[in-house]
């Protein structure tokens, strides 16, 4: 009887610990912030399309080290996706209560997506000049310690 009570108590403690640990990991993932670091730059134009280089700053306010995986960064113009990163499996460690910089992430746009968006960009440029940058947006889909991060607009 005593062994049964001890077993049930140990199981309850283990379940409570894992629920708490899981909750703290989710809270950590929700607190991570990703921002553009500087301006995106045209890296290369070749036969396959346009490559844009972006640098990101990742803020980790948590008291534990996290590993960030960035499977997708997407470029939008007026809400329409124009380009995205190639899917990769790289991870980036971010130390506790600090910011980390992830440099040289390539966003690739093929000519077909550029050609379908070009008329809208040209029309907006003719009407508004350089204010077309207001219609450009980025978002990032990431994982923090294996937990999906909410899509963040950059």
Poorly predicted parts:
2-26
Count of extended strands: 10
How many alpha or pi helices? 2
Helical proportion, percent range: 25-40%
Number of individual domains: 1
Q: Briefly note the CATH topology name.
A: Immunoglobulin-like
- CATH architecture designation: Sandwich
Give an overview in words:
The chain is of the alpha+beta class and 154 residues long. It has one domain (2-153): Sandwich (Immunoglobulin-like). The chain contains two helices and ten strands. Strands 1, 2, 3, 4, 5, 6, 7, 8, 9 and 10 form a ten-stranded antiparallel beta sheet that branches. Strand 4 and strand 5 (80-85) form a beta hairpin.
Short summary:
With 154 residues, the protein is an alpha+beta fold.
């Amino acid at each position: 009887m005593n062994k049964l009570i001890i077993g049930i108590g140990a199981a309850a403690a283990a379940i409570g610990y894992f629920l708490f640990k899981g909750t703290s990991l989710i809270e950590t993932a929700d607190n991570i912030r990703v921002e553009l670091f500087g301006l995106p730059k045209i890296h290369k134009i070749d036969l396959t399309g346009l490559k844009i280089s972006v640098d990101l700053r990742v803020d980790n306010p948590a008291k534990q080290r996290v590993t960030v995986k960035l499977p997708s960064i997407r470029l939008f113009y007026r809400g329409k996706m124009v380009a995205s990163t190639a899917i990769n499996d790289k991870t980036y460690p971010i130390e506790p209560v600090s910011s980390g910089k992830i440099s040289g992430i390539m966003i690739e746009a093929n000519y077909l997506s550029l050609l379908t968006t070009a008329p809208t960009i040209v029309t907006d440029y003719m009407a508004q000049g350089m204010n077309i940058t207001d219609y450009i947006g980025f978002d990032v889909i990431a994982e923090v310690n294996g937990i999906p991060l909410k899509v963040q607009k950059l």
